[in-house]
């Protein structure tokens, strides 16, 4: 770790696959103890970035320093201190839940006894203790994900990298994962995660960067980003089947900004109720009206003109 | 929850041997995985030599009354079968399991995220293949001893010879399996390399009976060198080729195969 507590420092970091630029010169700093997020849609370059940080993918350009070391030279030493939960689970389905942890611990040179003890503790932590001796194959997606997270903790890492930790999980399984990650965060473990779910980013990240097309388009805490790029409230209007565009013109002047989506119109306003009153005053009768607080989804929409999850 | 509390996580204790030779951790993983299936394999690793011994040695041997070059047909083919068992097991264990570790269960990628290097991952898996080659060949050797087909104390060197054959064959096959994306390519390897070698590289009859062009193909195959060495060992006779020549030739396959396989592993794991 460097003196200022920066664990990961990237400057103009680039990843190319042939002619294709997946990560296009990003600057990132992750400090000890924080939960840092990469928020962006599919193809934004999140996984490519995580794989470079995980020292399994050499940068094509720029600088990258992890735990004060150079991934090009010190890959094994850095990886020894990282915990990695990849986007797609790569557990061994034929081994038991416990064996997946104990064999993995050995890759880090952890003695067998210690490995067994840690496996027991970690299975308790991710609430899989009862399944310790069952095979991995029949486990649900959420259980596999939790096991992968436990595996990432087996070497007591300084940084835990989580690539889309809850993608593909049902809401209940997702909440269970969030709750565990939140516990880790409270214990001061440095988390770096990617997601294309704005609620995940809002709940877990102290600080995040919004990525799109291999670039960082904004950076800050969820609150800062919302304050900077959106209004306090949003009014969502749906105008039935007629198409939203016909109504968009009639809404001019209400609020700071209007976004017209295929299925609804978003009005960015300071006061939602006042805006709704104004809509009715203009004799417009939307099929449905919803007033809500601004979210990172709105930040993304404002910055890129697109929604995060399509 | 001491595991997760940074306070008592000092420097991670490094386990002696595995700390120094990380590939051993990979071997250990392979052995843990093998523990689930080995029982099913033990029976067949004895049954197969037994059946071939009875079928070829005694059945076919009855028609080859003159023997081959002064030794009974059974005694002639036993060392060849031991060498070709090493070949079959080495290739079998270096094809589907390797492709699967990249394409299906992706365990190599999980290993690559740990401090292991491509060479450790390769080395640990190759070591497991050698373990399989050794145990299968020992089963064969045991059956052969029971049939009285071992005639020289040099037979004790066959375990080392099969390890060398295994290494010479497994490493290039690891490279091959790491380079293809579909298992239909693996069947090709059996059809166009393993089966022809098993039939024509001196296991069942001396390669001198082959037409010249085919004979040179047999000489080029690693199996013929293994067969000649094993035959010299179990019969206690001089091999057709010099012993150092054989050893060097197989060693060259092993070394070349290792370098190639490691390059292929790096290309797949580090992208
Ligand atoms: N190994 C690869 N070879 C070629 N292109 C790749 C490779 N990995 C990723 N890409 C491309 O790079 C872009 C970014 O991918 P990725 O980093 O996986 O994005 P994200 O994780 O944000 O969805 C995508 O267009 C993807 O197709
Ligand atoms: Mg991704």
Describe what this molecule looks like in 3D:
- The complex is a heterodimer of chains A (about 300) and B (about 270).
- With about 300 residues, chain A is an alpha/beta fold.
- Chain A has 2 domains: about 220 residues, 3-Layer(aba) Sandwich (Rossmann fold), CATH 3.40.50.300; about 60 residues, Alpha-Beta Plaits (2-Layer Sandwich).
- Chain A is built from 11 helices and 13 strands.
- In chain A, strands 5-6-7-3-8-9 form a 6-stranded mixed beta sheet, sandwiched between helices. In chain A, strands 11-12-10-13 form a 4-stranded antiparallel beta sheet, covered by helices on one side.
- The longest helix of chain A is centred in the middle third of the chain and has 16 residues.
- The mean pLDDT of chain A is about 95.
- Helix content of chain B is about 70%, strand content about 0%.
- Chain B contains 12 helices and no strands.
- In chain B, helix 4 packs antiparallel against helix 7 and helix 4 runs antiparallel to helix 9.
- The radius of gyration of chain B is 21 Å and the shape is globular.
- Bound molecules: adenosine-5'-diphosphate and magnesium ion.
- The site of adenosine-5'-diphosphate has 11 residues of chain A, from strand 2 and helix 1.
